[in-house]
User: What shape does this take?
Amino acid sequence: MYNLLITLLLIDCVLITIAVLMQPSKTNDAMSALTGGADDLFAKQKPRGFEAFMQKTTLILGIIFFALSLGLVWVSSH
Assistant: This one.
């Protein structure tokens, strides 16, 4: 059981890393300092399409990571 949880946790870690790296960048460039940040008006939109899917995927993988970590602690303590 311990080895199964470790394996699932490692797979989940790799998937979380891939999901985070695939998310689009949200950083502002130096031009926003010159324009006064006018681009921030449209930056508060709800994510749609691929970005929303990746956010949900990352959240689900994070919950799975937390559950597997707790399960691993419980198994290793007994």
User: Anything to note?
Assistant: Residues 32 and 41 are 11 Å apart (CA to CA). The chain has three helices and no strands. Helices lie at 2-22, 31-35, 50-77. The longest helix spans residues 50-77.
